[in-house]
Amino acid sequence: MASRNISIPVDAQTERAWGAMGADERRKIESILGVWLRELAREQPESLQNVMEGAGREAQARGLTAEILESILRGE
């Protein structure tokens, strides 16, 4: 599937965290967000809880650990 870019407004702390993370972490977050948005766009979307759980499973499968996620959320 070809990649397309979108813009999403975020707060300053989120922008700083994004700018501080490495390329691998960015790709993982982009992947999680893509899965989440595709699920929300389906005709009969799953509950948000199920979507988030699925995104979490995919993130783990792609190497996102709890430590990396915590670091991202702290803006490190």
Walk me through what this model shows.
With 76 residues, the chain is mainly α. It has one domain. It is 67% helix and 0% strand. It is built from 4 helices and no strands. The chain has helices at residues 12-20, 23-41, 48-61, 66-74. The radius of gyration is 13 Å and the shape is globular. The termini are far apart. 4% of the residues are buried. The mean pLDDT is 84.
In brief:
The chain has 76 residues and is mainly α.
Give the SSE layout.
Elements (H helix, E strand, L loop, with lengths): L11 H9 L2 H19 L6 H14 L4 H9 L2
Rg (C-alpha, Å)? 13 Å
Give average pLDDT, whole number. Answer: 84
Based on CA inertia axes, which overall geometry fits?
globular
Q: Number of helix segments?
A: 4
Q: What structural class do you assign from the helix and strand content?
A: mainly alpha
Distance between the termini: 31 Å
Instruction: State the assembly state of the protein chains.
Output: single chain
> How many E strands?
0
Number of domains: 1
The biggest sheet amounts to: none
Core attributes:
globular, 76 residues, mainly alpha, single chain
